[in-house]
Amino acid sequence: MQLVMHIGVRMNNNSPIILAVDTTDLAQAKKWIAATRDSVEIYKFGLEFFLKFGSEIIDNLQREFGFRLFLDLKLHDIPNTVTGACKNLQMINPFFLTVHASGGSKMVAAAVAALPNTAITGVTILTSLDDSEVLKIGFAKP
User: Fold this and answer.
1) What is the pLDDT of residues 118-140, one digit of tens each?
2) CB within 8 Å of 134: residues ≥ 6 apart
3) Is residue 98 within 8 Å of 123, Cβ to Cβ?
4) What are the CA-CA distances from residue 58 to residues 8, 20, 30, 52, 76 (Å)?
5) DSSP alpha helix (H) spans, 4-129
6) Catalytic-role residue among 31, 44, 52, 74
7) CATH assignment of 15-136, among 3.40.50.170, 3.40.50.1110, 3.40.50.150, 3.20.20.70
8) Domain ranges of the chain
9) Catalytic site includes residue 106
10) According to a count of CB atoms within 10 Å of the terminal CB, is the N or C end of the chain lower?
11) Which residue has the higher pLDDT, 139 or 80?
12) Of 125, 78, 86, which is closest to residue 103 (Cα–Cα)?
């Protein structure tokens, strides 16, 4: 089973840049995309934007600007639920989708099976956690 695909893909103009659209302001998102579309091919949208606007607005943005989608939702649930969630994302065809690796190999495999043309990217730990928080949730120091 291949869990990571599209590694080494170069963006337009040989740019490896992925731009994080970290806003919940649709007008601002459009400005950023319009201003960078000649040098960026992949735009990352997170949970806040997705929950505010949904897949229809993201689909409209993709049609308007013609970009590849990195959807940073960090899905983490039982495999059946992740399968259903991923099937609901098929219409927007994400290039990348994040899932929590701690959901287990069956959950990750469910995402891969539901979105076979998407690079399912496992998030192992949140960057917001410091050492003490990591220990509190049950991870040991290396």
Assistant:
1) 999 999 988 898 889 988 888 88
2) 125, 141
3) yes
4) 25, 14, 11, 11, 21
5) 26-36, 47-65, 79-87, 105-114
6) 74
7) 3.20.20.70
8) 15-136
9) no
10) C
11) 80
12) 78
